[in-house]
Amino acid sequence: MKAPAKKKLKLPDATISEEGGLRYLHLETPWIQGAMRIRKPLKLELDYIQRMMAWLLLRDPRDWASTRTLQLGLGSGAITKYCHSVLRVPTTTVEINPKVIQVCRVWFHLPEDDERLTVCQDDAARFVNDPEQVAQFDALSVDLYDHEAASPVLDDEDFYRACWQVLDDGGVMSVNLFGREASFERSTARIAAAFGAGRTAMLKPTREGNTIVLAWKGFDLPERDVLAARAETLQARFELPARKWVKLLSAFTPAAVAD
């Protein structure tokens, strides 16, 4: 008797729009899945995307150049391009939708794979649960939304534990929490359960409602003066609004994991 065939996953088409010098990525809805300034394709245009890079605050500047980065969810490729072409660090990105990868390569200046860049068409949950990926990365960015953008696609404790496993000691994860059906308290409780007490912090929400959560492995949150000094270096070297990040950052420990 044959095993039942696996149901083929239907993935939305990736489309673009342009307005005011910006190019936007959509997945069959008006929701913006990413943006690029056409004349400055490496600039991190959206506020929440800039804040996703706040993991740099928690890494020693001496380690920035050797940071192995992983992005789950390509979007318009902004973080991937920035890590690869501006920070010039090893960059791996996992995107389930081949249409998104194709559109990013044609319309959003995503480079072809090279010695520092690997773009994988794969399921993010499968990738982080692969034993070969254990402790292979130092910075992980998680931005996983479908075309409805109602809540994160992957958001359970098992997933965040797998994210913890792919990070080496000293590694940092940044997560975008957004969506009309998302529960910030539930998500952050699950992240805290996976990473441990005192290993989570958040930036205040953007005007659009994106909250960036940071979680880290194997160290304590640096003192505020250390973060401020790193922010000055980041602002001078990469023109990232890191001083603002320090002001917006606060540590927290959720009381319990919600079911």
Architecture overview:
The chain has one domain: Vaccinia Virus protein VP39 (Rossmann fold, 3-Layer(aba) Sandwich), CATH 3.40.50. Helix content is 29%, strand content 22%. The protein is globular and about 40 Å long. The chain starts with 14 loop residues before the first strand and ends in an 8-residue tail after the last strand. The relative contact order is 0.15.
Jot down its keywords:
259 residues; Rossmann fold; eight-stranded mixed β-sheet; 11 strands; 29% helix; disordered N terminus
Write the layout of secondary structure elements.
Blueprint: E1 15-19, E2 22-26, E3 34-37, H1 47-52, E4 69-72, H2 78-86, E5 91-95, H3 98-107, E6 117-121, H4 124-128, E7 137-142, H5 157-166, E8 167-177, H6 184-195, E9 200-203, E10 211-216, H7 224-238, H8 242-248, E11 249-251
Parallel strand pairs: 4-5, 4-7, 5-6, 7-8
Antiparallel strand pairs: 1-2, 2-3, 8-10, 9-10, 9-11
Helix pairs in contact: 5-6, 7-8
Number of helices in the DSSP assignment: 8
> How many strand elements?
11
Strand order of the largest sheet: 6-5-4-7-8-10-9-11
Order of helices and strands: EEEHEHEHEHEHEHEEHHE
Broad structural category: alpha/beta
* Low-confidence residue ranges: 1-7
CATH superfamily: Vaccinia Virus protein VP39
Helix content: 25-40%
Average pLDDT level: 90
Q: What coarse outline follows from CA principal-axis ratios?
A: globular
- Main sheet? 8 strands, mixed
CATH architect. name: 3-Layer(aba) Sandwich
Q: Whole-number radius of gyration?
A: 18 Å
Distance between the termini: 38 Å
CATH class: Alpha Beta
Beta percentage is 15-25%
What's the number of domains? 1
CATH fold annotation:
Rossmann fold
